[in-house]
Specification:
Blueprint (H helix, E strand, L loop, with lengths): L15 H31 L4 H32 L2 H22 L2 H29 L5 H36 L10 H19 L16 H14 L1 H30 L4 H25 L5 H21 L3 H29 L2 H33 L1 E6 L2 E6 H24 L7 H9 L15 E7 L5 H14 L4 E5 L5 H11 L8 H26 L2 E5 L2 H11 L4 H12 L6 E6 L2 H7 L12 H17 L4 E5 L4 H15 L6 H7 L8
Parallel strand pairs: 3-5, 3-6, 4-5, 6-7
Antiparallel strand pairs: 1-2
Helix pairs in contact: 1-2, 1-4, 1-5, 1-6, 2-4, 2-7, 2-12, 3-4, 3-6, 4-12, 5-11, 7-8, 7-12, 8-9, 8-10, 8-11, 8-12, 8-13, 9-11, 10-11, 10-13, 12-13, 15-22, 16-17, 17-19, 18-19, 18-21
Bound molecules: adenosine-5'-triphosphate (ATP) and ligand LXEULUCI.
Length: 680
């Protein structure tokens, strides 16, 4: 069998709509950093003279920046889910432009504070609207790359803004002395004008961005208050989202502990301001490395596992940072800490974008932004008093003296907290229960798909079709089988439940609408029993013969219908099925994603026991299918089931084509010299 190569996907920036949004975001990020630099400098300039007043004035700007998120975050999220996101972003940009432009014109400290609060309030509407829009513009498999680019410009624009600010300050000084009319101007004036113009450019880009889906939430949506409560309920009630947010906040708290005490800790290690700067920079260098190289290196590892693992490692590293009294090692560990934080942040953002439905996304992102800021504020504020309260202690062991100060304690607490959160996230969200994490990790580092679970090592190829009722699985799996047979492949087309003798009986029990009293656990076990028989009698033998197996439904159906639909513990369903199948996982799962209200109306005849479940049941099933696909994008093809059948067929053929084995084995080619004729 020849190697199964993958076709190179196009870069996410080739997508014109995303490119436009990303450009707007980059310009805004540059503007935001310029804003922080210019406003803190202006506040300092306006209160020159007394060091204490000056410090308080600059601190006031930071407080004004944080405050609106705490107070207005929930409202902004509901706004992003309620109104047209393009209009929200466009209006926000115009408002930011006007407010920032007014700062150098008015030029008083009071107005700086008011304007900062106003700009931050507007930002609160812009950011969740943007975050919730990204998953609408890029395909699911490119969402991780899109988030990497977003984070890159958010932080990468900071040094560019710093250089620009310096240059614009020089321009400000020159203008002040050369143009009499501008003699009263503060040198930060040009920076603020450029900052305002950045928002105007973004307004233009957003206005001309046609790819954002239109929404008119004002017609039938509930009240804003109801929407806010609905958003909180959703975040608290959704297992995955709750796990992601707790994990990300844990990572934030750990980061806050470092920011809070880094200065005194570095000082205690004998480092000055330069060393403090290096430690600070190490966090960002690490984040960039984690986001780009870490995620690429571990691309075969389940994203849910990697999320928990990254936070756990970050926690352990933080404890090590607290205990190792060597500045060079501390800097190296800080890079690792940043890498873990970068990985966790990107995965968390990506999974939320994939998992959360469009109508809830704005509120979820906004909840995350607000709670992250509150956590950061709280931890940074509490870290130093706690460190001071603990004081400095020298532990003596014979001749050895080990210094353990308050800053060490804060870092240890932050590290332990992150470790606990990471372990909980790993357990809470693990989608490969029963499969050793270390084996998975080693395989991922080697760039291999985890061997113990995939069907990769068998000579054949295993493709499963999944989706809700009437999504088109039977139609498409039949068409795929015909297409493959046409190319000379030996194809076994099969389905669940009911492809074996025992299976046929089980299918009758499982789908008989009269069988009303069947318990959820019994149902899960019967499906698993059918699957065990199916794998042993049909699928495995065919794969070992080198056949291509196409199954209409497999394990994911149990995770979606019995796990999410019947609300059984997903770990239990996963374990039972891993045991029933001996860990056999398809090479490719095609998810035909169709809204249940569309799929159910396609079905003819009387509804069977499962089809007659209420719509909410089928909605939970659909959501779980999508979540499963999102957690392992490399192994799934998600197609929109509302597309015309021919278009779906083409998408499936394109993807299957990438992983097809050579129909004539290499040895036969060597002997006969024949070239296989594969039609596209
Ligand atoms: N893309 C499509 N657009 C419109 N109708 C479709 C599409 N795909 C399939 N159908 C029609 O929908 C009905 C159900 O299709 P199919 O039996 O393939 O779905 P299924 O997912 O296998 O259903 P089940 O859940 O019963 O197994 C059929 O009448 C089929 O012709
Ligand atoms: C494999 C499997 C199936 N189901 C449900 C899903 C459907 O309602 C029926 C199968 O009918 P189909 O027309 O053949 O698609 O069974 C399930 O609940 N759990 C499973 O594991």
């Amino acid at each position: 069998m020849t190697a199964r190569g993958r076709r190179q996907p196009t870069h996410v920036l080739a997508n014109a709509s995303f490119r436009r949004l990303w450009t707007a975001m980059s310009v805004c990020s540059l503007g935001d950093w310029l804003n922080i630099l210019a406003l803190t400098a202006l506040a300092g300039n306006l209160t020159q003279g007394d060091y204490r007043t000056q410090s308080l004035a600059v601190g006031g700007v930071f407080i004004a920046k944080m405050l609106p998120a705490v107070l207005l975050g929930p409202l902004a999220g509901a706004f992003a889910d309620r109104f047209d996101r393009r209009v929200t972003m466009f209006s926000s940009d115009l408002a930011r432009f006007a407010v920032v432009l007014s700062i150098p014109l008015i030029g008083s400290y009071q107005w700086i504070i008011v304007a900062t609060i106003l700009v931050e309030c507007v930002n609160l509407f812009w950011v969740p609207a943007k975050d919730a829009t990204v998953p609408n513009l890029v395909p699911k498999e490119q969402l991780e790359s899109a988030n990497q680019l977003n984070l890159l410009v958010t932080y990468g624009s900071a040094p560019i803004a710093a250089i620009l600010f310096t240059a614009l300050s020089v321009v400000g000084d020159v203008l002040k002395s050369a143009v009499p009319f501008l003699s009263g101007m503060d040198p930060t004036g040009p920076a603020l004008v450029v900052n305002a113009c950045a928002y105007l450019v973004s307004a233009f880009l957003i206005f001309t961005l046609r790819g954002i889906p239109k929404r008119d939430g004002a017609i039938s949506t509930p009240s804003v208050l109801k929407q806010i409560v609905e958003g909180w309920r959703f975040v608290g009630g959704n297992r995955l989202v709750r796990g992601l947010i707790i994990g990300m906040l844990g990572a934030f708290a750990a980061g806050g502990a470092v920011v809070g005490v880094a200065k005194i800790y570095v000082g205690a290690l004998g480092g000055g301001d330069a060393a403090y700067g290096v430690v600070f920079a190490a966090v960002f260098v690490g984040m960039a490395l984690g986001m780009f190289f870490g995620l690429r290196l571990l691309r075969e590892l389940s994203r849910r596992r990697l999320f928990g693992l990254a936070i756990t490692v970050a926690g352990v590293v933080l404890v090590a940072i607290a205990l190792v009294h060597n500045l060079v090692i501390v800097v190296m560990l800080t890079v690792l800490l940043g890498a873990c934080a970068g990985i966790a942040w990107i995965i968390g953002y990506t999974l939320i974008g994939l998992e959360v439905e469009d109508s809830m996304r704005g509120r979820t992102f906004s909840f995350l932004q607000s709670t992250a800021r509150v956590t950061l504020l709280f931890v940074v504020a509490a870290a130093n008093p706690l460190a001071a309260l603990f004081g400095a202690h020298a532990l003596r062991l014979g001749d050895l003296v080990y210094q353990f100060d308050g800053s060490n304690l804060v870092l240890v607490i932050g590290g332990v907290l992150a470790t606990v959160v990471g372990v909980l996230a790993l357990r809470h969200m693990d989608d490969r229960k029963g499969v050793s994490l270390s084996e998975d990790l080693i395989a991922a580092v080697r760039g291999e798909r985890p061997q113990s679970e995939t069907a990769e090592q068998v000579p054949g190829l295993f493709v499963a079709f999944e989706g809700g009722e009437g999504s088109g699985k039977t139609t498409q799996s039949r068409l795929l089988a015909i297409w493959l047979r046409d190319q000379g492949f030996d194809v076994v087309q099969t389905r669940e439940p009911g492809s074996t003798k025992v299976g046929m009986r089980l299918r009758a029990i499982l789908l008989d609408a009269a069988e009303r009293g069947l318990s959820a656990r019994a149902e899960a076990l019967l499906y698993a029993a059918d699957r065990a028989e199916h794998v042993e009698k049909v699928i495995r033998p065919a794969l070992y013969r080198g056949s291509l197996v196409i199954s209409d439904r497999y394990v994911d159906s149990s995770l979606a219908y019995q796990g999410a639909g019947r609300a059984l513990d997903p770990d239990d369903v996963s374990k039972v099925n891993a045991w029933a199948t001996g860990g056999l996982v398809p090479h490719l799962t095609v998810l035909i994603d169709t809204p249940p209200e569309v799929g159910l109306t396609r079905l003819g005849g009387a509804a069977d026991r499962i089809e007659s479940e209420p719509l909410e049941f089928h909605e939970r099933v659909r959501k779980e299918f999508r979540t499963l696909a999102a957690a392992d994008p490399g192994r799934y093809l998600v197609v929109d089931g509302t597309l015309p059948p021919e278009q779906i067929t083409r998408l499936i053929q394109d993807r299957v084509h990438e992983i097809l084995p050579d129909p004539v084995p290499q040895e036969s080619e060597d002997i006969t010299g024949t070239m296989p004729a594969i039609r596209d």
